[in-house]
Write a structure and sequence with these properties.
The protein is of the alpha+beta class. It folds into two domains: about 55 residues; about 80 residues, 3-Layer(aba) Sandwich (Glutaredoxin). Helix content is about 45%, strand content about 10%. It has four helices and four strands, in the order ααβαβββα. It has a four-stranded mixed beta sheet with strand order 2-1-3-4, with helices on both faces. Keywords: Membrane, Transmembrane, Transmembrane helix.
């Protein structure tokens, strides 16, 4: 370790004392630098984690279910609904419509977050009424698409009404 030349003239005891103080100062500086480095790394990780969670939450798709996990044995009030159908009831309808029939098909629409053409609900109801034994229509708020049609294990989404594609999905084509 280098120390000032004038320290050579000091008594040995004082010189050792000053050298120890100088070493302690170096250790203190290096630990401060280490703590700053560690805090900087922690801060960067926290910012990346928070940013990642924000990005994931704002960019994930919110769509209706396509499985029956977590379903309840309850039927909706009708095949064409004015209020959203709960997810657990939707899952039950995917299993079997009206609690005993064939697997159901559900058409969800979101006119809260998307601009829907006039009469969309009525047009969807018209399609559902042709298959009234197993097709349901319900609004689905906060869905990331305007229209979604589901059956067990399958989903198809639409930005605009496509009657032919909806019928093909319903008929399994």
């Amino acid at each position: 370790m280098e120390y000032p030349e004038e320290w050579n003239e000091l008594p040995k005891r004082e010189r050792k004392k000053k050298i120890r103080a100088l070493k302690a100062q170096d250790v203190s500086k290096s630990s401060l630098i280490g703590r700053i480095r560690n805090w900087s790394i922690d801060l960067i990780i926290a910012v990346l984690l928070i940013g990642g969670i924000y990005y994931w939450s704002t960019n994930r798709e919110i769509l209706p279910p396509t499985d029956m996990a977590g379903h309840i044995e309850q039927n909706p009030s009708s095949h064409v609904m004015d209020e959203p159908m709960s997810l657990s009831v939707q899952k039950h309808m995917l299993e079997h419509s009206d609690g005993k029939g064939p697997p159901g098909v559900i058409i969800n629409y979101n006119c809260e977050d998307f601009e829907c053409e006039p009469g969309l609900k009525e047009k969807l109801a018209e399609i559902a009424n042709k298959y009234s034994e197993f097709v349901y229509v319900a609004p689905f708020s906060n869905m990331s698409k305007k229209i979604a049609i589901t059956r067990m294990g399958k989903i198809q989404t639409f930005d605009n009404l496509d009657k032919n594609a909806l019928v093909q999905f319903i008929e399994g084509k």
